[in-house]
Fold this protein.
Amino acid sequence: MTKDIKEPRLLQALIPITVLIILLTFNVRFFGDDTLSGANQIALVLSAAVAGLIAIRLGHNWKSIRATIVKSIGSAMPSILILFLIGSLAGTWMISGVVPMLIYYGLKILNPTIFLVASVIICAIVALATGSSWSTVATIGIALLGIGSTLGFNSGLVAGAIISGAYFGDKMSPLSDTTNLAPAMAGTDLFTHIRYMIITTGPSILITMIIFLIIGFTANPESNATNIESVMAAIEGKFNVSPILLIVPAFLIFIIIKKVPPLPALLAGTLAGAVFAIILQPDVVREVANTDGNYVKQSYISVMRTMFGSVSVSTDNAAVNELLSTRGMAGMLNTIWLIITAMIFGGVMESAGMLLKITHYIMKVVHNAGSLVAATVGTCLFFNTTASDQYLAIVVPGRMFSKIYRNMGYKPELLSRTLEDSGTVTSVLIPWNTCGATQSGVLGVSTFAYAPYCFFNIISPFMSIFMAAFNIKIRRLKDENENGHAHSEDERRDI
């Protein structure tokens, strides 16, 4: 006899989230910056266990819960594989001299006054060209973080500038997966979506750049010319610093623009770094290998060690030594552990219908464009926090709200823009979200340290709500087009 499955009450749906919030609060208090080493992962597992007990009490069986968990983890596998390759890429780009070279020339070009706003612009351009905030942060972002540290800036502040620029570029790029996903969920086309995003994204990035420019003019980073010169001298004394090394990042950007999928593109970038290391940095290769034998053996050991494990290159400058250390694939394991446990929690909450129950109550406050957009933003934030994945934070609210927007007379691009203004950009602000965990792991800066400085990511959802609340450029289905007539339903499908 099949057991009847009951629908969760709102209080039941909120219990696991409340438990998670309490445990995460304890973790921050007792573990400080070390929460990602296991404390947050266990908090997610314990919260998932609480959700599982409630789900079983509601009539769900363990097999169905487990199936949803496995499906949830499976959805995160592309991100996990990308993380592994990012770890390897960071390693080979370090020993090849690519990252040291970018730091070296960056110190020559960038001064403290314009550094932060320049970091936003540089990351925005790279992410716009590649369509990937993750690749941007893992490559040019790491170099900029090293430059910023040398110039004396707080690492959280620099990371905030890097992430702000990278997520702007990713959000506005037609090559980005989320930029394609949002209009698909809402029911509009890609370029209508991108053009409409300019209304909220343009002011958000402009305000962000003004804030970083003001910080640059008013900040007094603890650096001096002697310190910068010593860092440059240490890099130049250890590596063959040459513009030829620009071929490696240029190659990666080129193949990403050519729409090579992320996994083979990152692997190609990793191997390109390895080749250039063997050719241009023989002394570094021998140091990392730390073994006797011919150069072929040393090259193999050095490249393999850099791709899978922790490696550091020693100089006579302690600050440079810290910059020239990487953790390879193994360094990503804590982040991957966090992602898996987050998917477990999200899977249990989804299987029991708890996520949908909470969002159902959110819809009761919707009356106009402002409240509708605010409800969408809140739902995306909710899914980023509970389901721990930006794709779910776009897909589920997109499916939930598409008919509601249409029934209330709003064009689908209003929904797609709101999904991006909230689901895409806020994911990186949450430590246990796949994006927050990834960027924190790649940059080596805790989410709590950089989140207050991710001005673009913080401003974007508020800008979306502001524009809707004041009815600024809100498109309605009955609005007249340029030729003076309203689109029919068939015409709207063809646009």
User: Anything to note?
Assistant: The two ends are 51 Å apart (CA to CA). The mean pLDDT is 85. The CA atoms of residues 107 and 165 lie 19 Å apart. The chain is about 75% helix and 0% strand.
